[in-house]
Design goal:
With 243 residues, the chain is α/β, with parallel strands linked by helices. The protein has helices at 10-14, 41-56, 85-101, 117-130, 144-150, 161-170, 219-242, and strands at residues 22-27, 60-62, 106-111, 134-139, 191-193, 196-199. It has a four-stranded parallel sheet with strand order 2-1-3-4, sandwiched between helices.
């Protein structure tokens, strides 16, 4: 039986062990990721990690991704789509409530976009507090140990060497390698006056849409990061399933 939720029948879902089953919900964004990466980078990475983990773990089932996220700060780059934080939180809540209605009690949100984090954590906090329901957040770029071992640093900003390496590893055809040679980047995220942060509207501080280092773009590095992130998510699934 498939572990992609959309391919199950209603009878398949009815027969799942709701006490042990862990639902994976991939989230991301449709937003610019520089001239070299697709606008779907965030949700493509999160759904890849979630799907690979569900294939390996008999107690995990992966929902289809929600591709649009909280991304209005990228709005002046063509192609970017966004929800307001209020709408985004409402969508996550409705999915959680539907899963709860069907008897599911455990969910891991696999998020690929930092702009979503605050909204996700608000919903997770509310549900864990008020319902017989356990939800967790997994974000691939938050594991400093993995990044230090593979890249040599743990700073991930936007469409930089880390994110480009990872989406390249997801699918070689997703990236425009011919763009690599002439990429430009902002060294940090945001617009500042001195040390005072003013804005995260991307077009105000990076012409290319990229922020962060670009010295070490490597598909091999991306594959290593993905492998370790999938292993880590597998461990989370095992722990939550037995909880």
């Amino acid at each position: 039986m498939s572990h992609n939720f959309q391919f199950l029948t209603w009878e398949d879902v009815k027969n799942l062990d709701k006490e042990k089953t862990v639902i994976l919900l991939p989230l991301g964004s449709i937003e610019q990721h520089g001239p070299q990466n697709p606008i779907g980078t965030d949700y493509l990475i999160s759904s890849y990690i979630a799907e690979k983990s569900s294939e390996k773990n008999p107690m995990a089932y992966c929902l289809p991704p929600i591709p649009v996220g909280v991304s209005s700060h990228h709005r002046n780059f063509p192609g970017t789509l966004w929800f307001s934080p209020e709408v985004f939180r409402s969508i996550i809540k409705e999915i959680f409530l539907a899963l709860k209605h069907h008897g599911f009690k455990k969910i891991i949100v696999v998020n690929g976009h930092g702009g979503n984090t605050a909204s996700i954590m608000e919903v997770i906090g509310e549900f864990n507090d008020k319902h017989d329901f356990v939800s967790l957040l997994f974000e691939w770029w938050k594991d400093e140990k993995i990044l230090e071992e593979v890249i040599g640093h743990s700073q991930v900003i936007h469409a930089d060497e880390v994110e480009t390496s990872v989406i390249w590893a997801v699918n070689e055809e997703y990236v425009k390698k011919e763009k690599f040679e002439n990429l430009t980047s902002s060294p940090k995220w945001g617009r500042y006056i001195g040390d005072l942060f003013l804005s995260s509207r991307t077009d105000q501080f990076t012409e290319s849409g990229i922020a962060g280092a670009l010295n070490n773009i490597s598909r091999e590095n991306g594959l290593k990061i993905l492998e370790e992130c999938i292993k880590k998510l597998d461990r989370h699934i095992d722990l939550l399933s037995k909880y």
